[in-house]
Amino acid sequence: MARLNHLVTLLFLTLKFAFLNAKSVTPPPLPVLPLPSYSQLKWQQRELIMFLHFGVNTFSDSEWGTGRENPSIFYPTALDANQWVDAAVHGGVSLMILTAKHHDGFCLWPSKYTDHSVIQSPWKNGRGDVVNELVNAAKQRGVDVGLYLSPWDRHDRRYGRNLQYNEYYLAQLQELLNKYGDVKEIWFDGAKGKNAPNMSYYFSDWFSMVKELQSTINIFSDAGPDVRWVGNEKGFAGSTCWSTINRTSLSIGNESLVGYLNTGDPRGTDWLPAECDVSIRPGWFWHKSEKPKKLTQLLEIYYNSVGRNCLLLLNVPPNKTGLISDADVQRLKEFKSAIDRIFSTNLAKNSLVKVSSQRGGPDSDFGPEQVLDSDHLWTYWAPSEDHSHHWIELTAKGKLLKFNVIRIQEAIGLGQRIRTHKIYVDGKLVAKGTTVGYKKLHRLEKGVIEGYRVKIRIMKSRGIPLISSVGLHFDPFWNPN
Ligand SMILES: *[C@@H]1O[C@H](CO)[C@@H](O)[C@H](O)[C@H]1NC(C)=O
Ligand SMILES: *[C@@H]1O[C@H](CO)[C@@H](O)[C@H](O)[C@H]1NC(C)=O
Ligand SMILES: *[C@@H]1O[C@H](CO)[C@@H](O)[C@H](O)[C@H]1NC(C)=O
Ligand SMILES: *[C@@H]1O[C@H](CO)[C@@H](O)[C@H](O)[C@H]1NC(C)=O
């Protein structure tokens, strides 16, 4: 009897082993390099961030100061960084980048290395510190801070003398990145003075110092190393936009590279996504005569930046009082509420999703249902490696689908893959495109479309495509006719 018992146990264990083996979970596919860093991936998910151009130009009604401004003109009568942060929060912004020093050389913090700063201004009797005000206000609301420190300095006499100026610039970087807590982005502008053609910036020293002082920071410049310029100041990325590019082909301040920066490179060896900088007003600094852009213009910028795999860096300049003007605050709120209205409802959410194939079979983690869940990064549909025609199809259960925006997102944590895609509604081609990346938005040329079946075909990709999210939306502000 004991012997039989033993045999039964053995049989049971053998069966259990076979069963477990059969049910072993299919792992995710290998990544397609290059990949984003931890900080680049966090950056990408912010979608909308804010620039604040503020300084002596705000008071002299100019865009590029000469460097000869008297610091006494910097006199905001009621500066309140809480109001700036409030405007940002209402606009859905999670990172605010301040011009700590613009080309005019005036410093918004009391730098030890120059007196051309808030120290010499009547504001707070020379004891003010705008960087500190922003950092404190932002911290209270859980908003992150970034800083812009212009390499071009039209005031400082050391500018043009390489060693002296680079020492000065590095000293200021150390002040800003040591004294004000976490800084999530640093912005290096490529502009240079024509009066000092031989001035060279010691970028590799600067970048190394930045990374030493702030481990989760992203460095922005024409050429990265973490975030690249998109090549224009309109806020428009290329309709093809790769987060990948060859860094070795880039140089800072090189006008002939704007096309390459705008589209990136499918064969690029570096992950270096683009940031689209644009101002809510015609100028970067506040001017009494200027007004914020219309909501429809801001939405067009949104579709051409966030909707093309980029981040939108929207400049909202504080005025002479030291506050963000009411018109801009209102426009930001409208912008946020329009985006919420368009994208908070996914009209496809009750659809039936079918796919060309599924990695690991029907019980794997890579099924079609993953494109309708709320995780836009780490859960995704993956096709089988054995197939070459990849598609995903949404079918209405009952009511007709009625939409004018189609959203597609890739699981970029495993690399940017899709090269070309086409979208059909009830068999008719309604949109086609190239790259997708973190987010691709198709705002349909013909306006609202009705149908039962929406099919997305991936025509070409680097490895198998991995789609993390798909959405159909209605944009009431879009009227192409
Ligand atoms: C810049 O460098 C070139 C070549 O070294 C030299 O001839 C020229 O005088 C320099 N210009 C200035 C403004 O220093
Ligand atoms: C600017 O970029 C072009 C195109 O890549 C390159 O040929 C040229 O050498 C670059 N110029 C400088 C000054 O780096
Ligand atoms: C970028 O680098 C890759 C790998 O070296 C190369 O195949 C590709 O042609 C480069 N792109 C350009 C535009 O030179
Ligand atoms: C700046 O904006 C505030 C409103 O946010 C407004 O009260 C103030 O008058 C504005 N200042 C100027 C100079 O327009």
What's the short story on this structure?
The chain is built from ten helices and 20 strands.
Model description:
The chain folds into two domains: 38-343, TIM Barrel, CATH 3.20.20; 352-473, Galactose-binding domain-like (Jelly Rolls). The model has no long low-confidence stretch (mean pLDDT 95). Helix 7 links the parallel strand 4 (185-187) and strand 5. It has helices spanning 2-22, 38-44, 56-60, 81-90, 130-141, 162-179, 203-213, 258-263, 295-305, 326-343; strands at residues 48-52, 95-101, 144-149, 185-187, 218-221, 227-229, 244-245, 270-271, 274-279, 311-315, 352-355, 390-395, 401-403, 405-410, 418-425, 428-433, 440-443, 449-451, 453-461, 467-473. The strands form five sheets. Strands 1-2-3-4-5-6-9-10 form an eight-stranded parallel beta barrel. A five-stranded antiparallel beta sheet has the order 11-12-19-15-16, with no helix packed on it. The longest helix has 21 residues, at 2-22. It is of the alpha/beta class and 481 residues long. It binds 2-acetamido-2-deoxy-beta-D-glucopyranose (4 copies). The site of one 2-acetamido-2-deoxy-beta-D-glucopyranose has 5 residues, from loops. Its EC number is 3.2.1.51. It comes from Daucus carota subsp. sativus. One of its GO terms (cellular component) is apoplast. Residues 1-22 form the signal peptide.
